Amino acid sequence: MRDVDDRRPAALAMLKQLYAHTGKAYIIGITGNPGAGKSTVVDAMISHYRAAGHRVGVVAVDPTSPFSGGAILGDRIRMQRHALDPDVFIRSLATRGHLGGMSRSTFDVVAILDAMGYDRILVETVGVGQDEIDVMRAAHSTIVVTVPGLGDDIQAIKAGLLEIADVLVVNKADREGADRTERDLLHMLDLRAHGERKAVEIVRTIATRGIADGSGIAQLAAAVAAHAERTWQGPDAPARAARRAASHIAELVRALLADQVEVALAKRGGLQEFAASVAKHETDPWSVAEALLAGLH
Facing residues of 202 across strands? Predict the structure, then answer.
């Protein structure tokens, strides 16, 4: 998977060959504010799905992943109880400057895990707030994790995260303020333009309890399953699948263009000469950008 993340030509050829073997996994995105306990929720969901007999893949997208403290495979050190399980595979990916809470290689790594037979794939995003809407494009179901005590800060995630939520989680629900947080979320959902408040379930969890009674993890998994049945079965499912494929293609196009621009710039000695000209107002940055793109053809 390192070759995929590094965009090596051999990896691209491999991805093309294995794509025919994908399409069996259910992909669940987990996003939310920093400190909401996303990685603890993911950890508990791994346990739940393993107990149900599923093979679980995890993609943790973060330069300083909650699983490892860095985008390396140290996840297995931090998560000892899953480290020796052959039916759990955890991979950390650095964002490498990619916005939207996702790594540019996320789609590719998910495809590999899918082809390897992991039928539940959990994608945990960086945790930077409302800009993490890209997870919706990669996942079948998107979980947004909140926590009591945000107060007015919950307004900051309304426009972004709440718009993409298929399931809302109030984690650390044993803390004071859980009732208020749930009421606030219900109020936010009432403001949704498309009026689908009742279709978005709010689940309370105490993820530090794992899958023990009262943790809420079983209820969370049930809410995800209900969303899957509601949206990925029936006449609308093909259109939804086509939208996911279109997002994947668009992401690949952006990535390939970025690679081509990087190569073209390297051949011309980088941006320094162009930047100096722009800094002196001899030209403008828009014309430079257009010229660079035109030079790719």
Answer: 168
Q: How many residues does the chain have?
A: 297
Q: Total structural domains in the chain?
A: 2
Distance CA 176, CA 7 (A): 47
* Domain contains 265: yes
Give the separation between CA 90 and CA 79, rounded to whole angstroms: 10
State the pLDDT at residue 2: 62
Query: In this predicted structure, what is the pLDDT of residue 228?
Result: 94
pTM equals 0.83
Helices (H) and strands (E) counted in the chain, each on its own, are: 13, 7
For residue 75, what is the domain's CATH number?
A: 3.40.50.300
> Alpha-carbon distance 119 to 28, whole Å?
11
For CA atoms 159, 223, 215, 180, the dihedral sign is positive
What proportions of the chain, in percent to the nearest 5, are helix, strand and coil? 50, 15, 35
pLDDT at res. 268? 79
Cα distance between residue 294 and residue 288, in whole Å: 10
b/e for 237-252, b at 16 or more Cβ within 10 A? eeeeeeebeeebeebe
Residue 105: other Cβ atoms inside 10 A: 26
229 lies in some domain: yes
Run of H or E residues at 252: helix 237-267
- CA 262 to chain CA centroid, Å, is 25
Beta partners for 92? Answer: 60
Q: Report whether pLDDT(131) > 70.
A: no
CA distance readout (Å), 226 to 63, 170, 205, 218, 229: 33, 18, 17, 12, 5
In a domain, 26, yes or no: yes
Considering the domain boundaries, does residue 239 fall inside one?
Answer: no
Average pLDDT over the chain, rounded to an integer: 81
Average pLDDT over residues 45-61: 94
